[in-house]
Amino acid sequence: MLGGGQLGRMLIQSGMDFNLSINALDPDKNAPCNYLANKFSNGSLTEYKTVYDFGKKADVITIEIENVNVEALKQLEKEGKEVYPQPHIIETIQDKGLQKIFFQRNNIPTPDFFLIDNKEQISKYKDFFPFFQKMRKGGYDGKGVVKLADAENLTNAFDAPSVLERLVDFKTEISVIVARNKKGEVKTFPAVECAFNPEANLVEFLFSPAQITKAIEKEAQRLAVEIAAKLGIIGILAVEMFVTKSGEVLINELAPRPHNSGHHSIEANITSQFEQHLRAILNLPLGDTSLSSPAVMLNVLGEKGYEGNAIYQGIEETMKMSGVHIHLYGKEKTKPFRKMGHITVTAESLEKAKEKANKVKDIFKVVS
Q1: Are residues 304 and 262 in the same domain?
Q2: Phi/psi of residue 18, each to 5°?
Q3: Which domain range does residue 235 map to?
Q4: 234 and 311 part of one domain
Q5: Which of 144, 286, 348, 358 is the most exposed place for a label (fewest CB within 10 A)?
Q6: What is the pTM of this model?
Q7: 187 and 160 in one domain?
């Protein structure tokens, strides 16, 4: 596994049930997978030789982060190694511009966009403001994205190859996770609804099931399956979507790995996204994705104004609450808005889960 972060940690935890031996490579010697991996290697994910040498020893190679050396993976694939998701798919998804071109060529609905090479070119599109400017490469968790309200104020604009995505008047953001194995078997998870922290521009709450109509759910599921089939992906794929106020579903972005919008599935679905990814890349039958119960997931983020060794406040009070499941990622240091863990709240109704999740948010804090 390339990457040793929290997604990898949860993949390993799931893999233990199947008695899998999972090795991890990560540039951080204290990464969350350090003490869980069968063998942990400290090294670069973007350096050809490091990735190639690491992959040579594996039976199956997968990722928990997209920022990896694709050329090394292509060579390993040529030499007969099983690499899932396939390197050419990782290459497409690493570049938000290539993602948009893929959508356009395959008639997948997505917000209107323009591709630019530098900041100077933004003014060419002054008649189409407002935009979200998204750096083509390197952005994650809200980083590499900026809102541009008008052509006269470009102080915060990136001077880098970017996508200018026209602002969508959306009602909500949803995500569908789809899995596909080598046999071509495909299964989707029920759509979830995402609520973002406006300051950090990353998911704060996730609601399962999404509060959308059956028609919108059906269309979201259809699009996820279509994208997985057209990519030919083996593994799991998170498909982030906008639902407009008129009920149209537009594709935002893709992630070819387990995703933050699927963490609730550990407790709230019959099969978790992590188990499903392992089933898919090992060409095993895919699991039942049905909901076991309504759920709310909240990301545990480092509090503003605190940086240093992590201290968890309110943990005992939170643990007294029924249906509250704490997942800490083993990160020693906290900083503002860093993902330190997540908490899933299950209940007999989504309303009750939301009520309990709001209490947890008030109680549980990561400080230093």
Answers
A1: yes
A2: -100, 10
A3: 170-367
A4: yes
A5: 348
A6: 0.95
A7: no
- For residues 65 and 41, membership in a common domain is answered with yes
For 174, other C-beta atoms within 10 Å of its C-beta total: 27
In whole angstroms, what is the distance from residue 71 CA to residue 46 CA? 10
C-alpha 25/C-alpha 146 separation (Å) is 31
* Structural domains in the chain (count): 3
Q: Which tokens hold the place of 273?
A: 């996204």
Dist CA 191 CA 193 (whole Å): 7
Q: Does the residue 88 lie in any domain?
A: no
Instruction: HSE, CB side, 13 Å, CA atoms: give it for residue 293.
Output: 18
Cα 282 to the center of its chain, rounded Å: 21
- Rounded Cα–Cα distance for residues 161 and 59 (Å): 36
Once rounded to an integer, what is the mean pLDDT over residues 80-90?
98
Residue owning tokens 């008030």? 362
Q: How far apart are CA 368 and CA 366, in angstroms?
A: 7
As a whole number of angstroms, the distance between CA 245 and CA 170 comes to 5
Cβ 273 vs Cβ 189: under 8 Å: yes
**Structure-token pair, residue 253:** 């972005």
What residues have CB less than 8 Å from 153, skipping those under 6 apart?
none
- Closest among 365, 332, 333, 327 to 345, alpha carbons compared: 327
In contact, 153 and 142? CB cutoff 8 Å: no
Which CATH number covers residue 78? 3.40.50.20
- What is the token pair recorded at 303? 């509090």
| pLDDT tens digits along 275-305 | 999 999 999 999 999 999 999 999 999 999 9
Alpha-carbon distances, residue 311 vs 81, 318, 353, 368 (angstroms)? 43, 15, 26, 5
User: Which is nearest to 339 in space by CA: 198, 142, 178, 144?
Assistant: 142
- Token duo for residue 113: 């966009």
